[in-house]
Design a protein that fits this description.
Elements (H helix, E strand, L loop, with lengths): L14 H9 L14 H9 L2 H16 L9 H22 L9 E5 L2 E5 L9 E5 L7 E13 L1 H4 L5 E2 L5 E2 L4 E13 L5 H10 L7 H31 L3 H7 L2 H15 L2 H20 L2 E3 L4 H7 L2 E5 L5 E12 L21 H12 L6 H12 L9 E6 L4 E5 L3 E6 L1 H7 L5 H12 L3 E9 L10 H6 L8 E12 L3 H10 L3 E5 L4 H10 L10 E3 L7 H8 L4 E3 L3 H13 L4 E5 L5 H6 L2 E5 L4 H6 L2 E3 L7 H39 L7 H20 L11 H31 L6 H27 L5 H17 L2 H6 L7 H35 L7
Helix pairs in contact: 2-4, 3-9, 4-10, 7-9, 7-23, 9-23, 10-23, 10-24, 11-23, 12-13, 19-20, 23-24, 23-25, 23-26, 24-26, 24-27, 25-26, 25-29, 26-27, 26-29
């Protein structure tokens, strides 16, 4: 495009006009900060309820000088660090988010064309739009030079758009060919791309059902711990002789440690840590498969997805064009006879038509369709022919031409070519419409003999100098191209159907085209997909939700409609995943429960997505969802394990307060037992294969499992603490006797902890049984290792203590069995008395 010969005489803004608009803030500069500062992120992760409870308990223990009983506090550092690092990554991605490329721009001011920076554009500037450049601000075309825009990143429409004088062009689109002079109508934060960016930058943390359940447990335990903590400390002070004696002889330290043992046991600190670690490990495993998880909690969301919205371009298709085939046109459209009816020309063969197609596509800079044709025909052995003259393809003309020794060949849009040719071509246009309805892009090859009967075709030079269509040309063949479908699309969609996940294709393209592609990949299996034009969708969110239940494919969808579709599906209780690659998908991806961006997506889209398929392979999604299901199903299993400790710690603390006895074990005991029967086994179990689809009711199922086991442990420990001192003649005011009781109670907790682990790990006929046996053996072995026994205050029972311990263990096993039988009976009675709860 030449900028020296404008067809408009407008001089553009003067220097005074520019200064006035700059003073009023009407420039193209946009603030880039996100809503989350570094201080906000640190504060949110450090000052949590969980950290507060654990930190207070750790400080109390350290004050007593018993640092060995304070090792549980390290979980704060690890868990807080994971949270801060994760959110800082998200902040950096959002801060870098920009839909616009800040390249230099050319404007007309004071009658001269000058180059300025992106941010220096002001309202009402006259802006030159040049081929290959991105539109930096919203504009209105005032001087058209055959401009053609790619708006796919904004609208999802994969075809380029021809603009004329008076049309609007939005920031974020790209000039494919031609150029224009345009007046800036919106700048900075008022621009279309900036508005999308601002909405995308709003920080929204992924909602984790697992974390919500854990937080509910923590809140409940806080309600229980705070009122119980004070009487627990008082009871332990009284157990050592009262405040005056405790302060005088320093026994208050042991009382504080004993109280902390009860408090720490009630907090499932390992569960919080294991949840973060499990999310992180799942993310690392997915990363090895070229899947980037940007928010760890989104791994869990994968397990709950039951509705998947797919963007066509970039997801089902790869955005490229594929040459399909050439179809010769039969009947009266033959060009084997001269226009005046005299015989003499032989019919055109398919090879000649194919060679002409190659030559027509073989331009200096072929477009995507031309390149696809060339690639396919080169593979078939075709090479460039003898071309005397050429008329390159133009988006304004919609056709191209080449002249050979005996003919002029045309290639272009069928409706444009046929409108210029003599004769009635209605049936051929209907045929073209049928191919288009099947998802194909249709081009027409036509041929005019040179020289023709009346000499209108002229010489080769005439063809190049005067690019007009010969009305005597006749159609020869149809060329069918289509968007290139990803090879893994059909198999991936079949997997989702089998897993009960409803898939919909949502695109900015023509609904007939999208529906045809959906049918090719068997989106709905053997049933034809039901397609709809998004322009016919109701505005009311509830009506939209009703319509979506019966729609599989939506075309002509606007960015705001994609977001509304996600909202409508949420109204019906669906957990929605959204895939996409364009800026037009960014808002919907952000609104969805799980946003999935392709690796070749716009930076804005990747920044707001929770998951990025780095190599843009749609086929990774089944593994992504399976990994999420593994995390959720296994974390439910191990959460049950951790909550057992919470239940028995709370019940034991209550029993200690009510009966004013010394706490029956130390914090280090619970650290040892918890590590071998809960923490380490839980970590291994959490990584085991598990493809069970997530079902609502996580917290209810966990509590239902934990109550009988926790109750059994609490009853067994309390009975031992109440009865054993009398039977064994232990004086609990004597340190050695108290240590013997606590060591015995720790053994009871350990053995019953192994029983609980066996229930969680079942069935035990595989490696799971070996896992339980290994940790049981490790716990027993540790008691015989001097350093371990000394550090954790463990004792190997002997003599009368051994007999008493064995009896206590036998009674504990009986209590354990009775509690679980009672729980099973209660569950059966409840389910049969209320049929609606049977499947809950």
């Amino acid at each position: 495009m030449s900028l020296s010969t404008p067809t408009t005489t407008e001089p553009g803004l003067s220097a005074a006009d520019v200064a006035d608009r700059v003073a009023r803030g009407q420039t193209n500069a946009v603030k880039s900060a996100t809503s989350r500062s570094l201080l906000d992120i640190v504060r949110a992760n450090v000052f949590t309820l969980f950290n507060g409870i654990i930190l207070a308990a750790m400080i109390l223990v350290l004050v007593t000088g018993s640092w060995r009983d304070a090792v549980f506090g390290f979980v704060i550092i690890i868990n807080t660090g994971i949270g801060i690092v994760t959110e800082l990554r998200a902040k950096r991605a959002l801060d870098k988010l920009s839909i616009l490329v800040e390249a230099p721009c050319m404007v007309r001011r004071d009658g001269r064309d000058i180059e300025i920076g992106h941010d220096d554009i002001v309202l009402d500037d006259l802006l030159w739009l040049r081929a290959g450049e991105q539109v930096p601000a919203d504009v209105q075309i005032i001087d058209d030079r055959g401009i053609e825009l790619d708006e796919s990143m904004l609208t999802g429409e994969s075809r380029t758009v021809r603009k004329q004088v008076g049309d609007q062009a939005y920031s974020g689109s790209t000039v494919v060919s031609g150029g224009a002079l345009a007046r800036v109508t919106a700048v900075g934060e008022r621009g279309y791309a900036a508005r999308l960016t601002a909405q995308a930058k709003v920080y929204r943390k992924t909602v984790s059902d697992l974390n919500k359940g854990i937080n509910t447990i923590l809140k409940f335990m806080t309600v229980l711990v705070v009122p119980l903590c004070i009487p627990l400390v008082i009871s332990q002070i009284n157990a050592v002789g009262g405040w005056s004696e405790a302060i005088a002889d320093g026994s208050w330290r042991q009382a504080v440690v004993s109280a902390v043992a009860g408090v720490v046991g009630m907090i499932p600190e390992g569960l919080v840590l294991l949840t973060s670690l499990n999310f992180a490990i799942a993310a690392m495993r997915l990363a090895r498969g070229n899947t980037l998880v940007q928010e760890l909690e989104s791994v869990e969301t994968l397990a709950r997805v039951d509705c998947l919205n797919l963007d066509k371009t970039g997801t089902v298709t790869d955005g490229g064009i594929a040459y399909e085939r050439l179809i010769m046109i039969d009947g009266d459209t033959s060009v084997g006879t001269a226009v005046d009816g005299t015989p003499g020309e032989r019919p055109v063969t398919e090879r000649e038509a194919t060679q002409a197609l190659y030559d027509l596509s073989d331009e200096a800079q072929p477009n995507a369709t031309g390149q696809a044709v060339l690639d396919a025909l080169r593979d078939a052995g075709y090479t460039a022919g003898d071309v005397a003259a050429r008329v390159p393809f133009s988006s304004a003309r919609k056709w191209s031409a080449v002249a050979t020794a005996d003919a002029v060949w045309y290639l272009g849009a069928p409706e444009v070519l046929l409108a210029a040719f003599d004769g009635d071509h209605t049936s051929l246009l209907d045929r073209v419409g049928g191919y288009a309805a099947d998802g194909s892009r249709v081009l027409l090859i036509a041929r005019a003999a040179r020289p023709s009967a009346d000499g209108t075709s002229g010489t080769a030079a005439d063809v190049a100098d005067d690019p007009t269509l010969d009305p005597h040309a006749r159609p020869v063949a149809l060329v069918l191209c289509a968007e290139r479908i990803r090879p893994d699309a059909e198999a991936t969609l079949a997997w989702f159907r089998e897993q009960g996940v409803r898939c919909r294709v949502i695109s900015g393209d023509n609904p007939l085209t999208v529906g045809a592609i959906a049918a090719k990949v068997r989106l709905t299996g053997d049933r034809p997909p039901r397609a709809m034009d998004a322009r016919d969708l109701p505005a009311d969110i509830d009506e939209l939700a009703d319509v979506l239940e019966d729609v599989d494919v939506l075309g002509r969808v606007l960015p705001d409609q994609k977001k509304a579709i996600v909202d409508a599906l949420h109204r019906r209780g669906h957990v929605v995943a959204m895939t996409g690659d364009g800026v037009n998908d960014a808002l919907a991806i952000k609104e969805a429960d799980l946003g999935i961006a392709m690796g070749n997506a716009a930076p804005a889209t990747k920044a707001v997505a929770q998951v990025v398929l780095v190599d843009s392979r749609f086929g990774h999604l089944p593994d992504v969802v399976a990994r999420g299901r593994q995390v959720m199903a296994n974390m439910e299993r191990v959460a049950s394990l951790f909550l057992v400790k919470t239940v028995y710690s709370a019940l034991i603390s209550l029993g200690v307060v009510l009966t004013a006895i010394p706490f029956p074990y130390l914090p280090r005991h619970i650290t040892y037992v918890g590590a071998l029967t809960i923490g380490c086994p839980a970590f291994i179990l959490a990584l085991a294969p598990n493809t069970r689809r997530y079902l609502p009711g996580f917290l209810r199922r966990v509590v239902r499992f934990a109550l009988p086991g926790g109750t059994a442990v609490a009853l067994s420990v309390l009975l031992s603490a109440w009865i054993l001192p009398g039977l064994m003649g232990w004086d609990l005011d004597v340190a050695d006797d108290l240590a013997s009781l606590r060591a015995t109670c720790a053994i009871i907790v350990f053995v019953l902890g192994v029983f609980v682990l066996a229930r969680v790990a079942s069935p035990l006929r595989s490696w799971r049984g070996a896992l339980v046996a290994a940790f049981a053996a490790a716990g027993v072995t540790g008691m015989f290792i001097p350093f371990v026994a000394s550090f954790f205050a463990l004792r190997v029972p002997s003599g009368r203590v051994l007999i008493a311990t064995c009896v206590a263990l036998a009674i504990a096993a009986a209590i354990f069995a009775l509690c679980h039988v009672a729980a099973a009976v209660a569950a059966w009675i409840i389910s049969h008395s209320n049929p609606t709860r049977q499947n809950m």
